Amino acid sequence: MVSLVVATTTDPASIGPASALLSMPGWHPGPSLQGNMSSFVNKEVRLLKHDNSIVREDHLDKRWEAATGELVHEVIFLSKHTAASNRPALTIHPIGVPHLRESDVSPAGGKPGWAAPPNPRIGPWLKLLKTIAQAHDLTPEFEVTLEATHHGPEINSPTMFVEIGSTEEYWKRQDAAQAIALLVWEGLGLGGGDAVGDWSRNNGKNKILLGLGGGHYVPRHMDVILKDTVWVGHLLSGYSLLMEDPGQSKARENPGEVGGTWKEAIKVSYETSKAAFPGGDVLAHIDQKSFKGWQRNVIMSFLAEQNIKVGKPGDFC
């Protein structure tokens, strides 16, 4: 079982950390994939470089397995982050577009109605990234944050994106690239220490946070995750819980009347979070203030119908 780290040469925030990582000891050339993607090997880690859009190269895990016979345990994509604020940031997030209808066109890769299993390292790596950023004097200039589940590429292995934002000035920053490289180096145990965020060594902490509601940077869920090392599943912001308002009276009488893709998004995100954490207990954590009263009611009703438990902040510690 190998960990696949993926970078693209077309993105300075992707190839910069990849180059910094490859400058560390122990790497040697690996097999090429389909003749045009180079790889590098270090212990049980494979770094794959390609020249295409990071969100458009689907199923790299299965393609690697078919080419090499090695089973892929997880995938970590290195990428740039963009934001309207242009604020410098180091971000981590799961991927998927479970809120899109089958007829929709996904603007940034992936398949409508799909979500990849979230990489179990997301929560522990967020804390490690904050520690590294502080030690390298990147904070408070750079915000260290989670993002909600969004974009592609389509893939079936436990996956996360690690990103540098939010403009070209910061995508090219060598100190940020070094911090991301160090995150991968330490997080995967390449430096000789224990890997960080290994679900099989959860020490009895088996509650996983499935975030529902809030903005793109999921602040209410972040508050819980940063208080203690919390396992993190999918994080669905309000824009991924699309509801068609049938009128408050109808919503109160019959939550099934509330159309939109919100139910499908919750189901897919819950199921793939369960798959990523075998034997774990996935609990929905709801950003109460981000919903109207009728929305909270129908979400709670649907969660009960689906036998999805709801957790309070203290339940995850």
Automatic annotation (TrEMBL):
The keyword Transmembrane does not apply. One of its GO terms (biological process) is D-amino acid catabolic process. GO terms for molecular function: D-aminoacyl-tRNA deacylase activity; metal ion binding. It comes from the Eukaryota. Coiled coil: none annotated. Gene3D superfamilies: AF0625-like. Keywords: Hydrolase, Metal-binding, Zinc. This is D-aminoacyl-tRNA deacylase. It comes from Daucus carota subsp. sativus.
